[in-house]
User: What shape does this take?
Amino acid sequence: MDVTERKTREETIREQEAELRQILDLTPQLIAVYGANRERLYINRIALDYLGLSLEEWRQTREWGAFVHPDDRARERDYFDRALSTGSAYELELRLRKADGSYRWFLARSNPFRDDKGRIRRWYVSCTDIEDRKRAEDKIREQEAELRQILDLTPQLIAVFGPHYRERLFINRIALEYHGLTLDEWRDAAPGALGHPDDSKRVQAMWDRAISSGSAFESEGRLRKSDGSYRWFLIRYNPVRDEEGKVLRWYAACADIDDRKRDEERLQQENVALREEIDKASMFEEIVGTSPALQAVLSRVSKVAPSDSTVLITGETGTGKELVARGIHRRSHRVSRAFVSVNCAAIPRDLIASELFGHEKGAFTGAMQRRIGRFELANGGTIFLDEVGELAADTQVALLRVLQEREFERVGGRQPTAAATRSIASRPRSGPCTLTFDIS
Assistant: This one.
């Protein structure tokens, strides 16, 4: 029989196979061909050089996953078993042993080849070296871990939001401890739930403008603490953009300014009190007089002024009890701080506690906002309680606690406030102005 045509086709096939093998040997990927049951049929030159084996040595290796890292073998076997049962292609990342015994990461892709009846005849496997990518990913993870550690140690509250602020991506440990939340609880919190209700509209308006313009901004707002109280923060928001200028994230850094805000509020209230007192004080530049009784009083003023003793001044109306109180304040180390005078007889009985100790918002009808009391206004200075005997008994009990414990609570409040204030009181008594003092 004439077999010339068949021989020609066979020769063409051999030439095509040789050409294909040459192409595969030059391919930078590791390529192997397995039978339907994982028999080793072919592997390209690049792969043999990587493994440090000949073709026969590779074919005669019977151990499953012999060239796979021990930590990756079970996973690789599991992938292949599922592929055999489903007949589907798969890919996974694993480490393959090099000729020198070291390992490198590869992305392995396995695809089945089927005959006309759909039966799997071959498995084609290609392995792409991803070692540099894995090292880069590990480096990025290390840098991220280091950055998170730095942010966790930063005394500011730091958070990262998505482009529309609704997506909560990251918050540092200091902020979570401040709010008393876990990361998941923070992510699930409703927008604005951690801010003060009185600040929500103002902050939301700023956010709306920032999202529409993509501009950085800053605002002052109160954030809720784990115990339910609020503190003031200066919050700075900065956008991060991609190469096209699209906002990807918003970074927020919150610096605690509560002490500054309280000092500002106290100074504002103190200035009001000082303006009220300036007319009263302007006529008493000095205490003038040479009588033995007055000189005795001034001598005792000089002795008691440098101390922090509580002082009671007694005398008839018009004998200068407030003038003596001011003299004690001017000669004390508190002279640079406020002198606050309270006429206890002139304040309605139901308002005296609020006047002395302040009140919280909503403490009683008409308390539309928190108010600082006279004791807090005089913090670090001197408070003068004129006509102290006119105070109601319950107010005198509260006043006694301030003198003994050096702290008080605002009306409607629960948190004690320290009272670093010197107290001077007066009450009427027949005869000239005299003073006593308590050094306990």
